[in-house]
Specification:
The chain is of the alpha+beta class. It folds into two domains: 42 residues, no CATH class; 114 residues, RNA polymerase II/Efflux pump adaptor protein, barrel-sandwich hybrid domain (OB fold (Dihydrolipoamide Acetyltransferase, E2P), Beta Barrel), CATH 2.40.50. The longest helix is centred in the middle third of the chain and has 25 residues. It has three helices and eleven strands, in the order H-E-E-E-H-H-E-E-E-E-E-E-E-E. It is 26% helix and 30% strand.
Length: 171
Amino acid sequence: MELKEIQDLIKFVAKSGVSEVELESKGFKIVIKTGHGTEPRHEATYYAPPVTVMPQAVATAPAQAVAAAPVAPPVTEATKSASPAPPSADTSNLLTIKSPMIGTFYRSAGPDKPAFVNVGDEIKSGKVLCIIEAMKLFNEIESELSGTIVKVLVDDGSPVEYDQPLFLIQP
């Protein structure tokens, strides 16, 4: 059944005053219901054969490889530069910088470039902390706080969610 035919059927049901129409044919089923409120309500349900989507292994493999190599040193530096117990035990005085968007987190401008910030770096408001790539756009994330980087919470090349913690800052 074509889209135009479905639209015509919905218009016909709305004009006829019928409360429900169900049409089933080979490979699909359409149910149109009208409500009795101030406006007629139309619902169309279409059942199609299932579509299988395969994940792209090629796209994820390089991101994992990139994340594995450069990430290990910063984590080690973080645990060496800060005593092991205080970051997990005494986080009440630390501020969190969170992701303003969904995307891929990058600590530097390129694979061969140095990280924007490292553990122990003093930062001021307006300093670029990282890049988040969203829909092929590279967005520089600037600090709104001043202080010292205590911990980087996300691995380079990892996906991040909106409002996900990225850095811990000592004010």
